[in-house]
Every structure is written in structure tokens, then in C-alpha cells.
Fold this protein.
Amino acid sequence: MIENKILEALKKILDPLTGVDLITAKKVHNIEVNGDNVSFDLIVNDLEPMIKGELNMKAIEEIQKVFPGANVNVNMVTKESLARGPKKEEKEEYKTFVQPLIDLSGNPLPQVKNVIAIASGKGGVGKSTVAINLALALKEMGYKVGILDGDMYGPSIPTMLNLVGERPGLKKVYGIDKLLPIEAYGIHAMSIGFFVNPEQAVVLRGPKLDGVMKQFVKDVVWPDLDFMLIDLPPGTGDVQLSLVQLLSVTGVVMVTTPQQVALDDAVKAMNMFMMNNVEVPILGVVENMSWFSCAEAPEKKFYLFGKGGGKVLADKGGTEVLAQIPIIESIREGGDSGKPGVLLEDSPVRQYYLELAAAVDKQTQLRNEVSGPTKVVKITT
Ligand code: ADP
């Protein structure tokens, strides 16, 4: 059908704001074909006139490649005018055959299916280690995965992915410079650690952090992804707040050790997501460093940090324990050497993370079946 060809043609054009194609970015609506006349609405909020002009020309060019001689009419509209719908007298004439899901919520990442935040109450509980290994395990399951290092004070993703010293590339999208995530082991990563040394990152405060988070969401050309994992800083703070105001977060995975002191902070961090108006679902809890066994007597478990803390946290959040991961030397070595444990073929580490990924996948699917997207938090001051 010619209509499908037109969709394919428009898919070749990039949205200047997100860097993904116009169809994935849900900028094209109400496509109509009448004889040789092709028309559609194109959302162009916040675009400069020159860029609108370029988009118009590009649309005509691409459509005429698949439909020579077409008279192409691009209606430049805003999200608001599209939401209001066509004027009354025009309504009968609208023979719409394609109505892509209208994303008028302003979601800046329409190309990302699930955004999962990895959170903890305290630092040092293994949150980043879980985030990286989970990302890679989801990739092994066949998903397209990205990881956004939101831990602005102590970015560890570059070290863990062996990317220290790497700098993201730039891509011009209609004259606007966008950042390209860096690919490692088949996943796409972005971190403040790609721009500054960890010591410099510590001086970033509130408003600046908010700005960096926004840039990492809006000024990075993220590809189509099934999962974007966001490694949050520990506790409750500016980055968490920016995140829930910026994006529809599908769910949160809490990481804790079984220890009581880690738990108290983890409950506070979890409660932030469960607050009225925020209401991001808690997908489950990862209890990390659950026990230690030595190679000589693997059946003997030493509960160095106590027992059962993950279950207590999960009960408080009305959720479940997704995995218990013991203390294993190769997990730490993997983090330090830039080859995460899940990639070690003959290690028990791999199995722990693959099982965690299967549990996260299942919880995400369940969550998506029972409720719609999380609402982006609007804070009025
Ligand atoms: P956080 O992000 O919570 O600050 P990290 O992921 O940076 O914590 O982990 C802190 C340290 O603990 C790192 O050196 C990491 O390699 C190590 N680590 C994390 N989980 C484990 C584990 N299950 N076994 C052994 N070492 C671990």
C-alpha cells in the first residue's frame, strides 16, 4: 500500500529534537492520501523556522522517491493545536487511516519502551554493579539496552565498562549538536564520567545536576531501546527529583544489603518513589552481598551483614525480592577491571544476574499489563 510506503519514507527523516526518526518520535499524525495529494500533520514545537523549512523539503523529497509526482502538503502544527483536533468544518474531510499512538505527554524518549531506575538508600551497597550486570544480562536475553549513569557524584559506569578516557561523539541533527552514547559490550552508555573526572563531578550541585540530567535525556541520540536503566545516586535528592519530572519511569529496582542501617535509608529512598503524585511502581528488591562462601566449602554460608533485610524492604514496598546475590570476589574484580561478572562464561556470577534479569523482565511485563505509563511529575512552585 502506498500509505505504508509513505510511512517508511518519513521514517528516514530524523526528528531534530530527539535525533530519532519522525515516526518513532511520534511527530507525524493524520496522514491522508487523496489521488496524488498527500498531507499530514507534523508536530514542530520549539523549532526554528530554518529547521522547519528543511524538514518540509526533506519530507517532500523522501515521499516523492516512493510516490513520484505526489503533491505533498506538510501541515506544521503544535502539540497543543493537534490535541484540540481539526476545526469543526474540516472534520468530515479527515479520512485518517494512520493514527500513530499520539504522545502528547511530551515524553522526550518515545523510542525507549521501559525506563528502569536502579536506586539505593546508601552508597557502597552494589547499586552500580547491579545496574551494569543487569543491563548486560537483559542484553543477553536479546533486548536492546541503554544505561544512563545518573550517579553524578560518583560515576562508576565508565570504569565498569572499561570506557575510562573515552569521549562521546557528536552528531548534527538539522544544525543542532547532539551527543552519541558510547557502545560497550552491545549496550549504549552515557555518563558524566565521560566528560569530567570523578573528583570534578562532586562539585556539581542542584540546578547543575538537573541540567545535566536533562541533557542526558534530551540532547543524546538514544537509539530504539527495550530497556533504559538509570543508575541513580544513593538516597533521595535532586537527581531523583529531576528524573521523575523529566521522564515516565516504568519502575524502580531497589538495591540493598541485608543490614539494618542500609535498610533504614533504603526505605526512605523507596518511599520517595511511592509518594502521592510521584507513584513510580517498585518492581522489586535486589538483596546484594547476602552472604559469603569460600571456594573450599561453597555450601557454607556466612551472613556477614545479617539476614532477611531484602525481604523486609520488599514487604514495606508491597513488592518482592528479585534476587539475592552473595559476595563473590569475581564480582568486585569484574567491576574494577571493566569486564562485568555476568560476562564471565564459567562463573556462578553469570547465573545470578541472568536470573535477576529474567525476574526484572517478568515484573516489567506484569507492570505494563496492569497499568498505563507512569505520569511525569509536575511540580508547581
Ligand atoms: P554503589 O553503586 O552502591 O555505591 P558499587 O556498585 O560501586 O556500589 O559497589 C561497591 C563495591 O562493592 C565495588 O567495589 C563492587 O565491585 C563491590 N561489589 C558490589 N557487589 C558485590 C558482590 N556481590 N560481591 C563482591 N563485591 C561486590
